[in-house]
Amino acid sequence: MRIWIWRTVLFGFIFLTGFRLQLALGGALEDGKVAAMQGDYSAAIMHWNKLIIQSDNPQRLEALVRRGEACRASGQYRQARADLSEAQAAAKQSGNAPMEAVATQALGYVYFLMHDFIAAERLLHASLEQAIRLDLPALASASANNLGSVLSSQGRIDEAMGYYEQALALAQQAGDQGLVVATRRNRSLLLSGEEALAELRAAREAASRVASPHERAELLLGIALAIKPDNPEPYYQVLHESSNMAEGLGDLRLKSLTAGYLAVLYENQGHFVRARALTEKAIQVAQGLAAQDLLLRWEGQLGRLMQSQGASIEAIDAYRRAIFYFQSIRQDILFDGQNGHASFFAEILAPIYFDLVDLLLQQVAKESDAEKEQALLREARETVEKIKVSELRDYFRDPCIAAKTRDIEALAPNIAVLYPITLPNRLELLVSIGRHLYRNVSEVDRDRLADVTMNLSHRLRNGLSFEFEAQQIYQWLIQPVIPLLEKHAVDTLVFVPDGPLRLLPVAALTDSKQYLVERYAVATAPALTLLDPLPSQWESMHCLLAGLSRPGPAIGKLPEAMKQSLVHSMPQRNEYQWRGLPMMVSDLQTPPKLREREISPDEVADRLELPGVKQEIAQLSQQLKANVLMDDEFQLKRFVGEVENHPYQVVHIASHGFFGRSAEDSFILTYDDKLGINGLAGLLTPKKLAANPVELLVLSACQTAEGDDRTPLGLSGVAVKSGARSALGSLWPVSDQATRKLLPAFYAQLRNPGETKAKALQQAQLELLKSDEFAHPTFWAPFILIGSWL
User: CA–CA separation, 301 vs 24, rounded Å?
Assistant: First the structure.
């Protein structure tokens, strides 16, 4: 059987590079091919559905691969994975080695798009070896090129460049100019300046020798987007050429894409009328395809153009349509960025959400009808809720995190929910009390607020003077609504933070006379629609206490940069031993220069020793009905077995932990290994469906990385993903001794009839605040309650 590869540049929810694999075509497959070539993936999938039902191998096998590739191209990654997995298994069983290699390569690329980099790397290595063994240099080139993309997305640049070099050599050996184009374009993304432009010029020259007009047009679009609109002349030339070819070929998807991206160029140059006309053309063509991923992008772009021209009502409508399209396809959305591109959330979705909220709140200021004003405020709040849910999906790379269907407004009247919204020129604060929404505006721009918040967080982490920053944020965020809170006898604040405010220990804000915690119990919520706040029955709670006072073999699993930082930056053990791993985000991304001598495991263990954990666990085991795993008993396998086999309502972990920029960077240390945040969430998830779900997850020694406002999403999201109703954790490394005092006090308060978790934490923090030794907020403020406050 003859096999070849039709390379193309794929455009889904964000720009990606990849390959559509095409097999030798029987006549029955031609209609599906034509539909796919014209960008009508829905029609192609419908055609191949029939063939898969009606045909026998090998035609059914080819149709499975084709449908899988069409699903991948249209963003339906789960269906693509299912089809290609079935095709791979069937090809292997029938001894069809070339088809197995093709399906393996395609499946590896789908896993890459779904961010399972381990599976992607394994499959692409396998397909590369298979293709070389079968003497299929084009397929080998595609595999090597995709391996480069997998590695570059993980920051393994040198390895990625090596595979791109191999891919280029194989493409030249095969005489495949399309693969030459794609590989050179990918290489350009890892280069800068003249080197990158030289690769793109070589890619464009190779594109002129690609025989297939469809392929050449798509490859040119890929080159144009690698150039980007900040280099307008070559961007326009290449994109315009691709656009002209799309018109002549009748490729509707490509017509929509080229029109939309040309609009971006005109918008950047201030030609808004032309930009709007092109965007509307892109929308019209996408509507004919029912391409909701493109409609999402272009409706958002239309909203931005209308907003810039002062057409607020039209812009609001466009943003609403964009969000509607997103909700219809969110299960298959690709969130994380690759190859130098921002994530889907950061590049596309967040601007749409925030621009819509901005316009809605501006309309509130113009509205004189109280009922319409409340309707606009509710829509703004619901949009903020959607932002929060999408942020967590982006952090965990999991489109399945879903809001609950519940009435946000059915909260106790003594609860106030604060939604701060940081906009470029102001801070908007929505306050939800009962069934009414209130609005306050502080004239502080986003950059100023971020600077002060980051500075406050840094000062509190390091025990420095903090009063100026704490008072300044109090005046912006809390002071304007104090009369409202007093009027409604509010005693608990639920804070739904935005951006850098996620790094803010709200309890430590002050009016110079008292801290906020002295007036209100405080809880943090990633989004109210993600929570299920129900009263707890603490009398029957069964607890698992896991503690690590000195790590064992797990030290060997720590990143080298982290071990270097621990030994060379963390102070020796003293009276205030700190729990948590003191790392900046950049420390994980760029390892420090290795010192001349090697670091021994004992040196790392000395820095990570937490003598107070033994006392904490011993004291809590007397307070609570609990099973205990201490030190070498707290091994990963045993911990997993305990949680899987027993219906614990409280899981308390006293060990070093770290929440980084992504879920992959975040973990908790057991005696012998690292427990990843996704692993912990998955471990607890089944309890969500049981009669007694995990009520409280306590991480008494975890911290969020300093310097990035995404990192607290891990602490918030672990409760959401696991189904735990609440989580208690810390924003920075905490004192071993202070923690040993605060947590028993917290649990003791919970045993009081009618006490909520938020008030129990408040009282425990006040005990430290009133002590001589731990009065400074660096000791008590980092502890935050996330999720249900009841």
Answer: 39
